[in-house]
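Might I ask for a little of your time on a matter of protein folding? What I wish to show you is a protein chain and, alongside it, a tokenised description of its three-dimensional fold. I should value your view on which stretches of the chain appear to form regular backbone elements. You will find the record immediately after this paragraph:
***
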Amino acid sequence: MLNRIYIVVGIFAIVVLGSAFILPRFIHWADYRDRMEVLASQVLGTDVSIRGDIAFSLLPTPRLEFDDVVVGPATDPAATVRRVEAEFALMDFLRDIYNATSVSLIGPVVDFTIDENGLLASGVDMSNAGTGVALGHASITDGSVRLNDVRSHETFTVSNLSGDLRLSSFGGPFQFQGNADYADGRYELRLNSGASDAQGAARVSAFVRDLVTNTVFNADGSFESGLAPKFDGTLTYRQPPQLATAAKDITGDLVLETKITASTDRVSLTGFTLSPDQNRSGMRLTGTANVQLGETRFFDIMVSGGVFSLPPRDASEVAAEQAYEFVRLLGEIPAPPIPKMAGKLEIDLAEVGMRGFSLRNLRVEATTDGDSWTIAQAIGLLPGQTETRFSGKVTNAGGSLGVMGDIVMRAQRLDALAALWRKPSDDNPLFGVPGELHGRVRLGSDAFGLSNAWIALGGQDHGLDLRIGFGAEPRLDTVLRLGDLDAPLSEALFALAPNASLDSNFLISFPDGSFSVQAQALDVLGLPAQNLVGEAQWSRDAIRFSRLSVDDWGGVGFNGTVRLSGSLLDPNVTLSGGLNLKEAGAPGLTALYEMANVPFDWQQAIDLAMPADLQIVLADAEQGSGQTITANGSIAEAALDVRVESERPISHMGEGQLSVVASIEAQDSLALLEQFGWTGPSLFTGDEAMVGSAFVDGTLADGFTGRLSLGQDGQVVAFYGDFDFDDGAVLSGTGTADVILRDGSGLAAWVGVSGAQLPPVEASASMEFVAGRSLALSEITGASGDTRFSGDVSMQMIGQLPGFGGTITTDRVDTTALAAFLFGGEALIGAAEGVWPEGPLATAHAPRQTRGNVEVIARELSLDGRTIGGDTSFMFLWDQQSATLGRFETALGGGKLSLNLVNCCAGALSERTISGRGTMTGVTIAAVAPELGLSGILDGSGQFEGAGQSLAEVVRSLSGEGNFAIQEFGVAGHSTAVYPALVNVDDVLNTPPEVLETVMRAALEEGKFGAPVAPGAFTIAGGTVRVGNMFIDGQAATLSGSLQLALNDMGVSGSFVMMPKAFEDPRGLVELDNARILTRLGGTVSAPEATLDLSEISAAVQVRANEIELDRLDALRLEDEARQRAAAEDRNRRIEEQRRLAAEEAARIAAEEEAARLAAGEEAARAAEPVPPFSQPLVAPEPILPNFDQQTIEMLIQSAPDASQSPTLFAPTIRPLP
């Protein structure tokens, strides 16, 4: 029985329990939706709608599930939950106590709204919530909290919220621990709250950690809920550094500690302390911050502090192996945080330690618009009392720093400022020098730029553009535009630049880079450089100048490209460009000599080529380590082309094989020779260009072999052989010299006889020389036209002057060439008047720099191609002052001519003095003056001297004296048979004088005047030779007179009279006193004119006949005059009669005209009275006679045919009018 009771009770229990499990499933819980919504609305203080399914089970524990819960109005809910699962304690649930032991909120979304007044509206009223609901443990999955700020039209969303929530009641306390997403980060959240007091305030604490960066926010304080929630407490922000890979990179956390007061419209941080590195406790910043929330969000932060310094570098670093500190700092500047709101930031720091230097009294005023920072001003002091001001913008583009603005730096001591990047020298030109920098700054994540900048230095402004790359491509690019800098300012500028050659930090900081420098004037290496332009790029291996240009650097100009590599001790240079050398001895050229270590003798030789304008290319050889130099351009008026191939680099050129090929071409050969110190005439003649060439191969150690030549239009001066340089760089050599010249004047000038002239020459000789010391020309063989010569010439330095000596043997000597050699070719230039040349004798105004004595032996003497003398010999001597033709002897006209002629004195004066002595022995006159018609044998001597600037002036001033005697003297065309021939002429009176003179001339030509001897003496004065009072006693007549020879034009003047000794004329026509035959001399020596004056004799013979004829002509003249006088008287009578008749006729005509006038007046008066028609007959008018004036009347009278005819004048008949 008992067992049955147990069974019944068990069955009942089973039924009851089964019903508890099963029956709730058959209950339609949606019918209780309203009840549940009412209960929830009472708890939350707002409408709650359950729009989804509802499920409930009682056992084993009460479990309630419903979906799609909406809290608040359906159109604007305060919160929504996608699904809610709650479990309650069974016994409490049965007692109507809803103690949820487990709650799962899946997809809850909570919305908070801050209205335009800054009030918080959540749609949930928790003020009346009791303690009937508690959450011992609630899990939230995929939740969201959204804050909608109506003022700024923004929504802040915390999404993917998951965690555990414990809630004693809606009034607290509660705690939450979980994770959530905000923006792009994932955060760990911990939130604790105590129970709210009567005013709704509760103690809260919050912990937020960024799961990626481990950045932590801690807040603790009092929170007042309600429409205007407020938090008042403390805030700690801790940001750990990035994970260090080395011990030197380990730093402490960045910690911000502050008091905070926050509400819906403002957040205030009062008295915050910021520690950038917690491990460095002494580096702290303090300040305040205020953040305004709402429609216009704005913050205002002020930071101040004492000494703020960056962490030190690793102590194990070697400073010489690191980049410049300021370059490293540029790469370490982080991108600044930019709040998503407008605001203002002020910073005031006493000192900021930048490791290598300090920035003192830093003050920054900056504002932001939420996108970038605008720095109104940033002021700090750098070393050297350098006030630095910056204003501009700072941006953060995806973590990349961006800075752009204007910077102004004013330094009182540039020496202290420049010490940041270069070690100062002992004598620093920047000491105490002030300066300024103004420019536009740009700073990015990998580069720093300074544009449109200018530097104020020395009272001038200089442009500057600069870019520093410090990222993946470290480099420096600079553009510098300089004004006119003198030497001190140039030194100061160079002292500002980094010392790239000696400072290893430079190439570490900037392994690559470029610069462009433009300067109106800049002192470079102690010399002013005008209009300097340098554009270059460098790398660790080389520096390349894409353009290096200077108009004038101490007389040197250059425009081209240059590449430098290697080291200072062993440089490798390549270049290409134009080199302009303005003058010899230019300071810039001297500096180049010193840099290239050019020997002094070479310097002097190079100076002779100035000025020069060349295109130079220095390039590496195609194979090996050698280099090739090519130069082409102009030196003075010549074109130069040089190619040098060196087996070794240019810096070691003297150590290897050298090959030189050079050519030079000049249109004006004399100008080129004068450029190289030539003082005489040109080596060559003609208008063609002169070309020089050189082919040289060898080494400095073993010597060279080559050919040197100058040529022009077939003329050549050449040397082929071996030459060498001794230890003093003096050139010496042996070889063969060849000469082909149309004019040998240049050779004369070469041996020091400036102004002399030689004929064309073609010769060769063995040559041995030591430059500036000795010269030997042996085995000379050559020809001048068809004249051959040979000999030897040598030169030795005697003291400071070279002395020449030797002997020349030749076939022929031309007097013109000899004169040109003695006086100079220029002295023989044409004459303005006369026959003597007007060319200057003083072609060289300085004393000769050589002396010499050369003997010349010739087989004949010629003039203009004609042989005028036989064997000839002379000595040609010269020294500093004079040139002498000494011991001159030549066979002439069966006799001998001796002469000694001196041309003195060389120097600054333009006048020269020419003097000489000469003798003739047994010389026929025909050999000296063949055109004069004289004969005889001449013996004589004389001396002369003259001075002037030309031969013509010398001749015009010539003076001297001498005497002569002519044996067997004769004058052609002066026969004494002329007197008998004149007497034998018939009818002299009627014979024309010309016929008489013809008869006499024919008689004179029948023979000559002769005399055994004709002695005489002459004087020379004022360039005129005078032979006066010469009397020659002939066989049948005498010849007397005087002779003058004007040397200026070689004009001959004078007269001689030939008179018979005894002659009788039976007719008396020829007497001794009137038988004078006059011969007048004129013309020139080369074209003499002898004029016979025979008029005196012919006039004496015919004078009487002329007197008779004159008497007869006078009688005829008197008879003719009488007849003419009678005819004139008759003509005058007839003229008077005609005048009288004309006057009478004129009077009659006048009376008739007056009567006619009076009759016409009466007729007019009668016409005025009435007259019957046709009462009076018509009367014809009187004839109208012409009214002639007196002149017409006289003319008519004169034209009358005869005075005896009637004097009636003819008058035309004029018919009366009808």
About this structure: The two ends are 211 Å apart (CA to CA). Residues 11-21, 1173-1188, 1200-1218 have pLDDT under 50 and may be disordered. Residues 743-957 form one domain.
